[in-house]
Amino acid sequence: MSSASSPLRAFVRRLMGARGGATAVEIAMIGLPFLVLICSIAELGMMFMTSTTIEAATEAAARQIRTGQLQAGSNDSAAGFKTLVCNGMSWIPASNCMANISIDVQTYPTFAAMAVNPPVANGAIDQSQLTFNPGSSCSIELVQVFYPYSLLTPLLEPGLPNLNGNQRLLTTAMAFRNEDWQTNGALCT
Questions:
Q1: What is d(CA 183, CA 189) in angstroms, rounded to the nearest whole number?
Q2: Residue 82 falls within a domain, yes or no?
Q3: Within 13 Å of residue 62, how many CA atoms lie on the same side as its CB?
Q4: Is 2 a residue whose pLDDT tops 60?
Q5: What domain range is 138 assigned to?
Q6: How far, CA to CA in Å, does 149 sit from each of 14, 21, 50, 96?
Q7: What DSSP string runs through 31-51?
Q8: Residues 69, 67: Cα–Cα separation, whole Å
Q9: pLDDT per position as a tens digit, 68-82
């Protein structure tokens, strides 16, 4: 019996002492989680860059409402405002922007009366909750822009999506009082 166990012991001893493939095994164990981490960081970076781009484009387009240029021009519609926002997002294709972006422009009697609620119902943007009212001189406005961002990294999907189809709703909201463009210099009260 001891002669049969002796080759088994020798084999186990050699196996335990072998270090030739240790590096390959360590890389295989660490490589996949590291790759997923790098992809997740890149995905979050792209999502934040998209969010920042939408915010900057919304701010520029909302200025047209605030100064009365939109109301006085030929683009005084939801589609015209959406075009202004999409024109400010140059690195996102215009067709993708126009198809996916949703806008909501509302007039309120006071700033305290504002309600910033995303128009999400059953995991999708509910277009029936969206309005377009750029107001008039001295009116209080809330401009909201919504964009569904599609997630590519599978590990982020359980923690981030708030829309169907592994999408995250990126939202920008801006509140302001329109300038007094009708009375030439009088202050809004």
A1: 13
A2: yes
A3: 23
A4: no
A5: 2-177
A6: 54, 43, 8, 11
A7: HHHHHHHHHHHHHHHHHHHHH
A8: 6
A9: 888 888 778 899 999
**Number of structural domains, the chain?**
1
Instruction: Look up tokens 């997002």; give the residue.
Output: 89
The answer to whether residue 112 is domain-embedded is: yes
* Residue 189 belongs to a domain: no
CB atoms within 10 A of CB 69: 14
Q: Where are the alpha helices (DSSP H) in 68-184?
A: 69-72, 78-87, 94-100
Write out the two tokens for 25.
């095994």
Cα dihedral across residues 120, 43, 151, 155: positive or negative: negative
- Give the closest residue to 168 by CA, choosing from 35, 44, 40, 36: 44
What is the predicted pLDDT for the residue at 31?
87
* Residue labelled with tokens 């164990």: 29
Whether 19 is covered by a domain: the verdict is yes
DSSP structure class, residue 19: -
**pLDDT tens track for 11-44:** 878 767 766 777 777 788 888 888 888 988 898 8
Beta strand pairing call for 120-121 and 167-177: unpaired
Render the burial of 103-119: b for 16+ CB within 10 Å, e for the rest.
bbbbebeeeeeeeeebb
